[in-house]
Specification:
Structural class: mainly alpha
Mean pLDDT: 87
Helix content: 40-55%
Oligomer: single chain
Radius of gyration: 15 Å
Low-confidence stretches: none
CATH class of the largest domain: Alpha Beta
CATH superfamily of the largest domain: P-loop containing nucleotide triphosphate hydrolases
Number of strands: 4
Shape: globular
Length: about 130
């Protein structure tokens, strides 16, 4: 398994991209293409990114193909704020980050509720879904 973390990729491979609509689209496309390149040698590739635009998720699904799975980690705002090690939610609430994103997708392939299930059960659910 490999994790293509959105923050790491943005800070290394895609440093020149900002957070404009076009840059977000480009970043998502490049990450999807990178996942496809790595797919042949790795069983599972996890790509934890916030992707607020449906059309970008559709684009990624088209690039990756049948093995694409959209996972929504459902967590109440209060819990996201409590767990936020970067302090982004507090900054957004103070108005320091305009248009802060993190919306639920319309029809994810799998939804995990981290408040109702322990992490170990969430992982088991994801692995069962991937095995099907």
């Amino acid at each position: 398994m490999e994790i293509l973390d959105g923050d790491v990729i943005r800070n290394t491979l895609h440093q020149k991209l900002g957070f404009s609509r076009e840059d977000i689209r480009t970043n998502n496309r490049l990450i999807a293409e990178l996942a496809v390149k790595k797919r042949g040698s790795i069983d599972f590739i996890l790509v934890p990114i916030i992707s607020p635009y449906r059309e970008d998720r559709r684009m990624a699904r088209n690039i990756v193909g049948k093995s694409f799975m959209e996972l929504f980690v459902n967590c109440p705002l209060e819990e996201c704020i409590r767990k936020d090690v970067k302090g982004l939610y507090q900054k957004a609430l103070r108005g320091e980050i305009p248009n802060f994103i993190g919306i639920a997708p319309e029809k994810p392939d799998l939804t995990i509720n981290t408040l109702e299930e322990p992490v170990s059960e969430c992982v088991k659910t994801i692995m069962r879904h991937l095995s099907n």
